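Tokenise the fold.
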Amino acid sequence: MIDPGLVASGLAIGFVVAAPIGPVNLIVIRRALRYGGLYGFLSGLGAALGDAIFATIAAFGLTAAIDWVMQYSTILQITGGIFLIVLGTRTFFVHPHLEEAPPDTAYSLVGVTATTFFLTITNPATMLGFIAIFGGVAGLTVTQEDYASAGILVASVFAGSVIWWLVIATLASLFRHRMNDRILDVVNKGSGIMIALFGVAVLVQLAVRLF
């Protein structure tokens, strides 16, 4: 029998992990404003998939995976920081137009999801956060072998994250008809700067820790 409390905990965790304003939220909002809710949601879906992977590692106690992420955490953070800077710079110099048709190829649809998925899995702090939350809030530690409960928890976390991104993408897309090219360009430049700054912050924090 499915434990409603466990499902509620998972949904709440999915919301809590996805909600803080960061580069993924900026990407989802920007794409929803430029191309519509579908592209915003697919961008958020990439982050939800990344969260689900980290949630699986934490819930099922996959020690080897945890050790691997910790071993290569510095490389992952450097890669993620550089990727954010490149993405932010590229976003800043793009001149979007509302009349521009969104890319509708399968490659493009997968690409918008892959971007945020990559940003999520290159952040080892997310996995450590899941381990701490699962043990402290959900009452399921990485040493327990209740695989059914762990599976339900992971699915609930994924569902909570997906719901968050669906809401954000939908709300952002509702403002799309009020946008014009000038406003969209300002939003684009502003989000590009902030995304790049997130990348710089990641690298600065890493440098302070190492040196």
